[in-house]
UniProtKB/TrEMBL annotation:
Name of the protein this chain belongs to: Nucleoside-diphosphate-sugar epimerase
Pfam families: Epimerase
Domain NAD-dependent epimerase/dehydratase: 3-214
GO CC terms, sorted: cytoplasm
Molecular functions per Gene Ontology: aldehyde dehydrogenase (NAD+) activity
InterPro entries xrefs: Epimerase_deHydtase, NAD(P)-bd_dom_sf, NAD(P)-dependent_oxidoreduct
Source organism of the structure: Leifsonia soli
PANTHER family: PROTEIN YEEZ, PUTATIVE-RELATED
Length: 301
C-alpha cells in the first residue's frame, strides 16, 4: 500500500515507519520543517512539506494514498482547545479525501480520561465530542465516517510510551524531581498510569493497519497501570533523591501542568487488542526502562 503518515518523524511515528517499510509499504510523510523532512528521507520516507493546519496538503496527500496513519498532534498544553480544533480539522479533511474509498484511517487517540477511576476497555467509547474537546473529539467524529465508506481505527496510546529517547510525561516527572530535589507522588501513591514500550506500540500500529475492521478501538497498552508511587520511587532511585508524598492540594505548585494528570488513577486493559491482533508486548516494562538509566542520563545533560 501507499501510506501517508503524519508525525512520522516524531517519537512514535519514527518507530512505526520501519515497521511499515519492512511490511513492503510505500510511505509518504508530512514534514513541517527541513529538519523533519531530512529525518523522514533518511528513514526511507518521501517527505511532503506541510503542517497539520495545511488542509489542501493533507487532502491531496490522503487522496493519493491507499491508507492514512495520523500520528501528528500539536501538544500545546497552554492551548489545548486550539490543539483540539487543529486535530478536528485534520480528521475532517481526511474524511473528505477518503470518502467512498474504503481506505483505512488510523489515528492516534489516548486511553487517558476515557474512564478515570475505572479500567478503560476497547469497548468503552470516548466521552468527548466537539472541536474543543480532548483531541477535538476525534473518535466520535471519525467513527461517523463509516457510512461514508471509510475505515476508521482509533489507536489509543498509553499516556506513557517509554523507551530511550522519550521526552514525554516520564521525562517531565524526572525534570520536576531534579528541580524540586524530591521525587514526589500524589497522596498515598495508589493511582496508576498505563504504559507501553515504544517498539511494542509501533508493531501494533502496523498490525492494525492491515487487520483491523472499521470503527475499531485499539489499545496500545503494555501495562494496565503502573502504580504512581512505584514510578516516583524508581525516579528517586535513579536520581539519588528522596521520595515523598505530595498533598493533593499542592499538586499544581509542586508538579506544574503535569500534576493534574499524575494525580489521576488511570488504568486501561489490552485484552481485546492482544486477542484480535495476536499481539503480545515483549519490550521492557516502564520500571525496567527507568532502572536502565537513560531517563536520568539525559536529564543530567
Amino acid at each position: 500500500m501507499r501510506v501517508f503518515i503524519t508525525g512520522g518523524s516524531g517519537w512514535i511515528g519514527s518507530a512505526v515507519v520501519p515497521e511499515l517499510l519492512a511490511a513492503g509499504h510505500e510511505v509518504h510523510g508530512l514534514a513541517r520543517s527541513d529538519e523533519s523532512a531530512a529525518r523522514l528521507r533518511a528513514a526511507g520516507v518521501e517527505p511532503i512539506v506541510g503542517g497539520l493546519g495545511d488542509r489542501e496538503v493533507l487532502r491531496a496527500s490522503a487522496a493519493a494514498s491507499d491508507a492514512v496513519i495520523h500520528l501528528g498532534y500539536n501538544h500545546d498544553f497552554g492551548d489545548q482547545a486550539g490543539a483540539g480544533r487543529t486535530e478536528r480539522g485534520a480528521i475532517e479533511t481526511f474524511g473528505d479525501a477518503l470518502a467512498g474509498t474504503g481506505a483505512p484511517l488510523l489515528f492516534a487517540s489516548g486511553v487517558a480520561f476515557v474512564a478515570p477511576g475505572q479500567v478503560a476497555t476497547e469497548e468503552v467509547l470516548a466521552p468527548f465530542a466537539g472541536p474543543e474537546a480532548p483531541r477535538g473529539g476525534a473518535e466520535e467524529l471519525a467513527f461517523g465516517f463509516v457510512d461514508r465508506g471509510i475505515h476508521p481505527v482509533a489507536v489509543r496510546f498509553a499516556p506513557t510510551v517509554h523507551g530511550a529517547g522519550d521526552h514525554g510525561f516520564i521525562a517531565e516527572l524526572v525534570r520536576v524531581a531534579r528541580e524540586k530535589g524530591v521525587s514526589g507522588y500524589v497522596g498515598d501513591g495508589a493511582g496508576h498510569w498505563p504504559a507501553v514500550y515504544r517498539g511494542d506500540a509501533a508493531r501494533l500500529v502496523a498490525r492494525a493497519l492491515e487487520n483491523a475492521s472499521a470503527a475499531t478501538i485499539v489499545h496500545a497498552v503494555g501495562e494496565q497501570g503502573v502504580r504512581t508511587r512505584d514510578i516516583a520511587e524508581a525516579i528517586g532511585a535513579g536520581l539519588g533523591l528522596p521520595v515523598a508524598s505530595i498533598d493533593p492540594d499542592d499538586v499544581g505548585e509542586h508538579f506544574g501542568w503535569i500534576g493534574r494528570i499524575f494525580a489521576l488513577d488511570l488504568q486501561a486493559s489490552n485484552e481485546l487488542t492482544r486477542r484480535r491482533f495476536d499481539w503480545e508486548p515483549t519490550g521492557p516494562t516502564l520500571l525496567e526502562d527507568l532502572a536502565a538509566g537513560s531517563y536520568f542520563a539525559r536529564a543530567a545533560a
